[in-house]
């Protein structure tokens, strides 16, 4: 266990009175340490504690307080239903703690917590069963943030802007703890609207594809980001048309990266390297990747490295099943690797690798082809059972003024004919989660 504080910017460095601004409320490092110290005093000795992780300084103080005290923090989604909330609290054994940011106490950061006590327990849903608690250590967080700071040339001179939820890796670990480790100023916009991003005046912006799609459709907001240094997209694949639109309007090709709750961020394009639509770059320092059972150049992405989780809370069988016999983590994502080491994520093995008529088709490639049509705003592609083909390619689209036949022909003209959708269904919107990822299991039957 490292003896170096995780939140290095809070210890020994100069105070910044406007170091953090969350949904319009600002504070400095000294204020944050005082509020977090009060939380640390309250939770000391608890096995774990939960916090209502809304976009607020209280949430930041709670998470920092847990890190100061060496007590695992369980962020709760503010919109979690009663059953989900009850499951998380029961499964984690955590007590829900309310935070008053006006309270103050002096507490030093503990760096000697027992290795079996995680820094965070983040709940993530799989395809079946209730959400599982992912145990993330402070050493994994530190290793990931240091690697990303190097990859993105992220320094204390940056102003980081985002409006992402604070109960996920992207918004909380990267978007809050990253700023507190690097020492950059943080502006959390509350809601991630194009207008809020445009007004923030940042040098480094984080967003999910839904956010970047909305920014790209707001020309004035997009052009206001031209003064930034780096735009970063993650949590879901960024459609190629959005990549191209952002580059044209802002002058910046966005950096795409790849990660999971269980692994944190493991692969990324670099601030000083090439960026291509649909490509998530190369492994971060210390990360090794491989493509398993590769066919036609694609297969399951497996990896090892210092950013991996410590297991699923109370589920040793599930933890063991997530690794290969020789110790590589099974991501469940299908990927390909180009000659220069650049990775492309095709999609989830369970939903995005379609086997049709003897061909292996990545859903993401077909989705990007559909999104290239000017009438299409959203697209999700799945494989449906078919007596002759095994699976047929089915597309769900949000579009205006275009027919299914026109879209099928459009894809056929850009991709191999066997990759065209056999059926197209029009929807008013795609079902998505809080991070903007389309939820294909919630799509209506054809």
UniProtKB/TrEMBL annotation:
Residues 110-313 form the AMP-dependent synthetase/ligase domain. Pfam families: AMP-binding, AMP-binding_C. Gene3D superfamilies: 3.30.300.30, N-terminal domain of ligase-like. GO terms for molecular function: medium-chain fatty acid-CoA ligase activity. GO terms for biological process: fatty acid metabolic process. Residues 365-437 form the AMP-binding enzyme C-terminal domain. InterPro entries: AMP-bd_C (IPR025110), AMP-bd_C_sf (IPR045851), AMP-binding_CS (IPR020845), AMP-dep_synth/lig_dom (IPR000873), ANL_N_sf (IPR042099). Keywords: Ligase. PANTHER family: ACYL-COA SYNTHETASE, ACYL-COA SYNTHETASE FAMILY MEMBER 3. Belongs to the ATP-dependent AMP-binding enzyme family. This is Fatty acid CoA ligase FadD36.
């Amino acid at each position: 266990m490292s003896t170096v504080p995780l939140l290095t910017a809070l210890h020994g460095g100069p105070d910044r009175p406007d170091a953090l601004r969350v949904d319009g409320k600002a504070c400095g490092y000294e204020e944050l340490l005082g509020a977090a110290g009060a939380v640390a005093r309250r939770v000391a000795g608890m096995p774990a504690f939960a916090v209502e992780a809304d976009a607020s300084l209280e949430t930041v103080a709670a998470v920092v307080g847990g890190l100061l005290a060496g007590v695992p923090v369980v962020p709760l989604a503010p919109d979690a239903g009663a059953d989900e909330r009850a499951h998380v609290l029961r499964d984690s054994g955590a007590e829900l703690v309310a935070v008053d940011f006006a309270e103050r106490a002096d507490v030093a950061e503990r760096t000697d917590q027992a290795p079996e006590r995680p820094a965070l327990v983040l709940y993530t849903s799989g395809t079946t069963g209730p959400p599982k608690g992912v145990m993330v250590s402070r050493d994994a967080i530190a290793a990931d943030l240091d690697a990303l700071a190097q990859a993105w040339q992220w320094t204390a001179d940056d102003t980081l802007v985002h409006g992402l939820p604070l109960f996920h890796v992207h918004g909380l670990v990267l978007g809050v703890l990253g700023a507190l480790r690097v020492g950059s100023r943080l502006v959390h916009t509350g809601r991630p609207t194009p207008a809020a991003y445009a007004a923030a005046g940042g040098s480094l912006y984080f967003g999910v594809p839904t956010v970047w799609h909305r920014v790209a459709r707001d020309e004035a907001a997009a052009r206001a980001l031209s003064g930034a240094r780096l735009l970063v997209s993650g949590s879901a694949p960024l459609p190629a048309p959005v990549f191209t639109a952002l580059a044209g309007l802002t002058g910046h090709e966005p950096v795409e990266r790849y990660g999971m709750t269980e692994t944190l961020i493991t692969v990324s394009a670099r601030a000083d390297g090439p960026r291509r639509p649909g490509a998530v770059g190369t492994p971060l320092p210390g990360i090794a990747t491989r493509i398993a059972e590769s066919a036609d150049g694609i297969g399951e992405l497996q990896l090892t490295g210092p950013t991996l989780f410590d297991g699923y809370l109370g589920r040793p069988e599930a933890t063991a099943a997530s690794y290969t016999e020789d110790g590589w983590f099974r991501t469940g994502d299908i990927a390909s690797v180009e000659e220069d080491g650049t990775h492309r994520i095709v999609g989830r093995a369970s939903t995005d690798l379609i086997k049709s008529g003897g061909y292996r088709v990545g859903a993401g490639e077909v989705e990007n082809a559909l999104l290239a049509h000017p009438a299409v705003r959203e697209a999700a592609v799945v494989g449906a059972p078919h007596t002759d083909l095994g699976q047929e390619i089915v597309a769900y689209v949000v579009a205006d003024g275009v027919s299914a036949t026109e879209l099928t022909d459009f894809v056929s003209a850009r991709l191999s004919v066997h990759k065209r959708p056999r059926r197209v269904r029009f929807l008013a919107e795609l079902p998505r989660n809080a991070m903007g990822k389309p939820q294909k299991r919630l799509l209506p039957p054809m």
